[in-house]
Amino acid sequence: MVDYYALPQTGPGQWPGRAQSARLGSIKEKAECVQDALRDDLITGMGHRFDSRRFVPFVVMHEFEGLLFSDCAAFSRAIGRSELEGSFRSIRDSFATPEEINDSPATAPSKRVQDLVAGYEKPFLGVLAMLAIGLSRIRNECPHFDGWLEQLESVVD
Q1: Which residue of 8, 23, 48, 89 is surrounded by the most CB atoms within 10 Å?
Q2: Does residue 25 come out as left (phi exceeding 0), alpha (psi in the -120 to 50 range) or beta?
Q3: Are residues 80 and 122 part of one domain?
Q4: CA neighbours closer than 13 Å in the CB half-sphere of residue 84
Q5: What is the pLDDT of residue 103?
Q6: pTM of the model
Q7: Does residue 91 sit within a domain?
Q8: Total domain count for the chain?
Q9: CA 98 to chain centre
Q10: Is residue 149 part of a domain?
Q11: What is the pLDDT of residues 6-44, one digit of tens each?
Q12: Of residues 20, 16, 24, the one with CA closest to residue 57
């Protein structure tokens, strides 16, 4: 799982497919472009030693926190800030899916949460929220994430 936004497009550290994906429209197309290019790059570099069936990359478009907007009530309760449910809901309702929450570096999902929750601790509070929301709810609200999990579930020896 990698965050699309911060992946370098140019230079020595550029990620496979990142520059090409910038020209695409939907988040699904962009993410799949990078995921496919990353897999192809590994196949090229490792050859027959690499079993591509067992490598299932996931490019989250705008941070892990976006997934937490799948259930704003559970999110706000889990971090001990129930009064923020309406604020979280307002953010969520501005986008088709939680995976699309972002407009700029200043409005990334974590920045939006940090603006509302002073001292927001990503690892601790993010995990609490994820546990409260539950995987099935996130899967229902986040189709790209759900597709990735379906791929993982289908990997069988």
Answers
A1: 89
A2: alpha
A3: yes
A4: 21
A5: 67
A6: 0.85
A7: yes
A8: 2
A9: 9
A10: no
A11: 788 888 888 899 999 989 988 889 999 999 999 888 888
A12: 16
